[in-house]
Design brief:
Layout (H helix, E strand, L loop, with lengths): L5 H10 L2 E2 L11 E2 L1 E9 L8 E9 L2 E6 L9 E4 L4 E4 L1 E6 L16 H17 L2 E6 L5 H8 L7 E4 L3 E3 L22 H5 E3 L2 H14 L5 E4 L18 H13 L4 E5 L2 H10 L3 E4 L5 H9 L3 E3 L2 H10 L7 H24 L20 H25 L17 E4 L17 E6 L2 E5 L3
Parallel strand pairs: 3-6, 3-7, 8-9, 9-10, 11-12, 13-14, 14-15, 15-16
Antiparallel strand pairs: 1-2, 3-4, 4-5, 7-17, 17-18, 18-19
Helix pairs in contact: 5-6, 6-7, 8-10, 9-10, 10-11
């Protein structure tokens, strides 16, 4: 049970190493610490057009050099990109690795072991679509994050919230009205999604417990939601003193709080208490958006999940009540982006999809582009999301010192966002931390 065997250590170390394409080494597992990408165009999310004629040197999992003249190295493997686009890996800041049942009410019947295997499958799919980092917004925990970092599962970089904090009857309370016990979710997937806490002692204990377990951020439910069965969309959840206590507790730990909020009142109450990100935010009004910009808070819209639920109807797995709620938030989605853009609110990118709808994870980029432009949508999913994750200069752009999280794309994403199509047929290279997860250029 104690020290891992030598073979296990070797495997874990190898998973973290950069691997040379088969044609450039002695075999598919030949290890290299430096790679030069040349002959392509660079997508800098801060620029409106691709930058041509740059060489990119990757060394020990980081971007070492970006140069407009050829980079020379005797030790680095060289990959000719052939005129394709090199762009930073995409970031999705609103996923749920464990929320993968079509009927969320049945999650209480799914054991955690099964859900974990399913989550690993879902996360691998995200990575293979080009999302090299994701922020889990209820459910994802240190166990999955640690398993990924150890190389046991292939996933994007994981930033986890642990369980979301919900009041009784709030968006994180999926009990049917007939259920009276509090331990309905024991040992099931439902137990992973949220913790129900009421009053200052309980919410403080709940936040402290998620921080104890290594949460990268705290998620709190501030309004009704689409998927939850019992709460109206316009309901205001948690008292102001409870929200303030949650934020203070997280900030004392050096962690920020993200708030699920649809209604304008719920958004404003969360901002006043110190929330850093607002998830969804569909019914925000101009005055509140201006207040949000003043407080340097971020909006993380999740437009694609409403679009797909609307498109699928009953096949989405949502109940009739949830589909009626979805129609309401769907109608307000693009307008909320327009309001926030006009106010100067920084806008990130999130999807909030389940396993049976994950295939549309990239399609949300085109939705946001209707308001933000293709460049704006890509910036949301790269440099803005990197700021949300507090990973400026490390994620979201390819500059010296950044993680070598990159894609090689056949096409120009600024002209056609469909290059990020399901299954990644236009993704020739997917690299995270200098490790190839896909490479068709060898």
């Amino acid at each position: 049970m104690g020290t891992p065997c030598a073979a296990e250590v070797t495997l874990r170390q190898a998973k973290r190493q950069r691997r040379v394409p088969p044609s450039q080494g002695t075999g598919k597992d030949a290890i290299v610490t430096a790679i030069i990408f040349s002959g392509g165009k660079l997508l800098d999310p801060r620029q409106p057009e691709l930058v041509e004629g740059l060489d990119l040197l990757i060394e020990d999992g980081l971007v070492k050099e970006v140069s407009d003249t050829p980079i020379k190295s005797d030790s680095a493997a060289r990959i000719d990109v052939g005129g394709r686009t090199i762009c930073p890996g995409l970031i999705d800041t609103h996923v749920h690795m464990f929320m993968n049942e079509m009927n969320l009410g049945l999650a209480r019947t799914v054991p955690i072991t099964y859900a974990s295997a399913k989550a690993a499958f879902v996360l691998k799919g995200m990575l293979m679509r080009g999302f090299t980092s994701v922020r889990d917004m209820a459910g994802g925990d240190f166990g999955m994050r640690n398993a990924s970092e150890a190389g046991y599962i292939d996933t994007p970089r994981l930033f986890v919230s642990g369980r979301s904090i919900s009041q009784t009857g709030g968006h994180g309370d999926f009990r049917e009205a007939s259920v009276t016990t509090e331990d309905y979710a024991c040992c099931s997937t439902s137990e992973l999604f949220s913790i129900i806490a009421d009053g200052l002692p309980e919410v403080l204990k709940a936040v402290r417990d998620e921080l104890r377990k290594g949460a990268d951020q705290i998620k709190v439910m501030l309004s009704g939601g689409v998927a939850s069965p019992n709460d109206p969309l316009n309901s205001l959840q948690y008292r102001s003193d409870e929200i303030e206590a949650i934020v203070e507790e997280a900030q004392r730990w050096g962690v920020y709080v993200a708030g699920h909020a649809y209604s304008d009142d719920a958004i404003r109450r969360g901002l006043a208490a110190g929330l850093r990100t607002i998830e969804h935010g569909n019914f925000i009004k101009p005055d509140t958006a201006a207040y949000m910009a003043e407080r340097d808070a971020y909006l993380v819209p999740t437009l694609i999940t409403y679009e797909i639920t609307k498109r699928l109807g009953a096949a989405s797995g949502k109940s009739e009540v949830s589909r009626a709620k979805n129609d309401i938030v769907h109608a307000a989605g693009l307008e909320s982006l327009e309001i926030c853009k006009a106010a100067g609110v920084p806008i990130g990118y999130g999807t909030d999809l389940s396993m049976h709808t994950q295939q549309w994870q990239c399609d949300g980029l085109a939705l946001q582009a209707e308001v933000l432009s293709p460049q704006g949508a890509i910036a949301a999913a790269t440099i803005t999301n990197a700021r949300i994750l507090r990973q400026e200069g490390k994620l979201g752009e390819l500059i010296p010192g950044a993680h070598a999280d990159l894609l090689v794309v056949d096409g120009d994403p600024y002209k056609d966002l469909s290059v990020f199509a399901e299954g990644g047929p236009n993704l020739n290279v997917i690299m995270k931390g200098g490790t190839f997860y896909k490479n068709t250029l060898s």
